[in-house]
């Protein structure tokens, strides 16, 4: 479970003071979208290496390289599966490498956004896109609940181990069955907690007015504008190259 | 016997939770661990059944190093009743919940142990009810029953009085006394000093991962700087005794006798 916690930590936002964390959330979303587009349009190992290199450079500037490493290590398992399936269905080794590398590059670039954007900023971005309020609330709450559920899972695991449960014992089917004493309380707690949260929101007048006021609103700084323009300036010829010249 | 030798523990996030703990807890004793939130109380007791292994130093339980033992093997001897019942209840019935530990530890006399636990903790009428449908206090009692059913040599109670009414607090006292009579070792982690006071346990006061006082509850809680550092409020009878410079009475009846003189 500690390994799971270690891997899961790679998907969770932590407040750090870095140049990338200070960017406006919309700029971070733009950078991520550009990197995802770059990964999707790349069809050679060199192009994908450039896309992945750009992602890792931004991650290094954001101080999240180690945590992104965990995410990439986790996705390497899926990437290997993609590689094997591609080979089995008749793709060449180079093509299989490209597809599995592309998966890693997409995971890396989306991680930049989620590892550097707080749930509050995420909410603001979604509001900026004028998404329905209930949908925003449900999504942001789900994101906020991830660390809480992880902590719950660890505590439940400890409690059941103390009652003689050995999850690592037996074959794969036995091991899956061994998890039921952990999963049942975890799901029940999550359902109970969501019910309590709904009541707590209702008593604080959630949904009472159609347009609630907000404490924070987006303010794009000059540095944000410069980064957005620079990245767009770099991206336009890149897109032109991929769409019309390759 | 539980022994801690120079035990320090650092969490994965880098926070030092225990600092150079040296401690011996003799068999067949009652020990209370008190202190403010985050003092390291729960971290300390989790070392006894091997859920946590020390970053430095070693913990011996009945002479065996916990680093070399599995949690399941240690738990046969060391039962922990955790603070939050919702973190452990999962079975379809109360009966199956109690049987879970008995099956895991391969205990033969399951039926007798089950009946004893149901009876002692007032749970017989709920034996076929889902644990999820019990009240908070009943869930807590079920957790006691689950652990005591396999009869561990050492029992650790993490905040046992939370959500319990007076009648069931008395039941916990009765349970502790029974266990002590049977030669067991009981460790209580609690903020409820009023509950602990009449039991007169050996008391360890913790603050910032260290044991800052260790002794009889009256001695441990008499020092003003300890009380201040650990953010504690003295039990009323002790506070009264200190104010009147009397020998601390164990209960109200003793206090009344002293004051009547």
Verbal overview:
With 246 residues, chain A is mainly α. Chain A contains eleven helices and no strands. The longest helix of chain A is centred in the middle third of the chain and has 29 residues. The radius of gyration of chain A is 22 Å and the shape is flat. The relative contact order of chain A is 0.13. Chain B is of the alpha/beta class and 261 residues long. In chain B, strands 6-7-8-3-9-10 form a six-stranded mixed sheet. In chain B, helix 3 runs parallel beside helix 5. The relative contact order of chain B is 0.15. The interface between A and B is medium-sized, with 22 and 26 residues.
Average pLDDT reading of chain A = 88
Rg on CA atoms of chain A, Å: 22 Å
Which chain pair has the greatest contact? A-B, 22 and 26 residues
SSE pattern of chain A: HHHHHHHHHHH
Q: Layout of SSEs?
A:
The complex is a heterodimer of chains A (246) and B (261).
Chain A: H1 2-8, H2 19-22, H3 25-41, H4 45-62, H5 65-88, H6 93-116, H7 119-128, H8 133-161, H9 172-178, H10 180-203, H11 222-245
Helix pairs in contact in A: 3-6, 3-11, 4-6, 5-6, 7-8, 8-10
Chain B: E1 2-10, E2 16-25, E3 30-35, H1 41-46, E4 56-61, E5 64-65, H2 71-77, E6 78-81, H3 94-104, H4 110-120, H5 136-148, E7 154-158, H6 166-181, E8 185-189, H7 193-196, E9 202-207, E10 210-216, H8 217-220, H9 224-229, H10 236-243, H11 252-260
Parallel strand pairs in B: 3-8, 3-9, 6-7, 7-8
Antiparallel strand pairs in B: 1-2, 1-4, 4-5, 9-10
Helix pairs in contact in B: 3-4, 3-5, 4-5
